Amino acid sequence: MADDKFDVIIVGAGPAGTTAAITAARAGLSTVILERGEYPGAKNVQGAVLYTKMLNDVIPDFWKDPQAALERPITEQKIMVLSEDSAVQVGFKSAQWRKEPHNCYSIIRVNFDRWYSKKAEEAGAQLYTGVLVTDVIKKGNKVVGVKTSEGDELLCDVLIACDGINSLIARKAGMMDDWRADEIALGVKETLFLPREKLEDRFCLEANEGATVEMFGEITKGMLGYGFLYTNKESISLGIGCKVSHFMKSGITPYALLDQLKQHPVLRPILKDAKPLEYSGHIIPEGGYNSMPPLFADGIMICGDAAQMVNPSHREGSNLAMSAGKFAAETAIEAKKKNDFSSKTLSLYQKKLRDSYVIPDLFDHKDLEEEVESRPELLTVIPDLICRSAYEYFNVDGRPKRDVQSAILKRIFRDRAVRKLIKSELTFSNIMAMGKKALKGALKFKSLAKEGN
Ligand SMILES: Cc1cc2nc3c(=O)[nH]c(=O)nc-3n(C[C@H](O)[C@H](O)[C@H](O)COP(=O)(O)OP(=O)(O)OC[C@H]3O[C@@H](n4cnc5c(N)ncnc54)[C@H](O)[C@@H]3O)c2cc1C
Q1: Measuring CA to CA, which residue among 115, 113, 74, 66 is closest to residue 97?
Q2: What is the pTM of this model?
Q3: Same domain, 17 and 113
């Protein structure tokens, strides 16, 4: 490396790091990205759906670039609730999503990260691949650089940690401990080749359009998690992920879960003759707002997965990472103007996250997983009941419709799990407690925002 002191060092060339690099380099800051992979994307796994808004903020009209590594613009999104042999699905398909800019695209991270990191280099950032950062360098309390596995020491005014869920940088900087098993999920994914025409026929897609399916219910065997299926140009990304603590408790292996998903009678015909191309697995942060480490300290900011910025209930992570990378770089630019890289100046990063959708969304979903976990019937009995009721509703067996419908309703309301759920939810004190909790949350959020935290 030509120089060993830079304005900004960024660890990790994922969506967070590359966005930070583009933003900082464009403003004229000397910017270095250090990436452990042989090339950006080499080690990265995502479903993957990418929302356009956040990328468009950084690279306007990016979809017009013929090199842009995009698979299909998504025009249909479905949610499927599966029992052992059936599925109920709801979906949304819209001609509005055919218009540019599309709402989101399917992508393949290996290709996308390579293309995106070239944009950072074009903006003037120096990208070094095959470089594993092993530690931070501190002067007193301030982070002033990094050490690499090759024994190099590089100095900077600001370090932006975008190193994903391993969060080595934040740990080495003393900002957090290891993640607990209930703060992370493990996702496994298979990419299956299917010729373009077959794929479009099976999903009823017009040429080049894409579809997504999120799957819940029996497929996760009572564990908290979900499956996904996304259409690429000539392949399908099929995956499933559950909380690591649940995998540990159940003893079920992620690959067994994925194999069973492929054999589900509803999915089997969709996947017929699809040829496995690649298998991958990756950890996903699921602790959300409650698990976020401090986001900044003297000389350092933490972005994306490294700071638990994932909203799993909305399948969002890469967009939060991009927004965080952009805000961190904008903060570094302000800090450079002031020549002050203290935590006081870098707190602007957190303010930007609070003023955007990132922290509000994470805050609003902070207790969701716990609430679902406390009602295990939502993951087991209820999906089965939904499918059984649908079967009865659509099945013609000679009974008058009114008898069929009342039998369905009786079964639903007599079901022990449903009664338990209704009883636990609809008590007067529970409704009051929910109201109080929502109010308390809103007030706490307001007061934190006022304090600039
Ligand atoms: C199975 C699965 C499906 C998902 N599906 C979706 C989806 O459909 N949509 C969505 O928005 N999000 C999805 N996510 C989440 C999304 O992938 C992440 O939120 C996103 O990648 C976070 O970006 P990042 O830049 O923070 O981290 P990463 O993308 O993980 O990038 C971190 C980078 O840092 C590098 N690195 C790590 N440590 C070091 C080190 N010590 N030295 C040098 N380099 C280092 C890594 O090699 C990597 O390139 C999914 C995740 C998984 C696992």
Answers
A1: 74
A2: 0.92
A3: yes
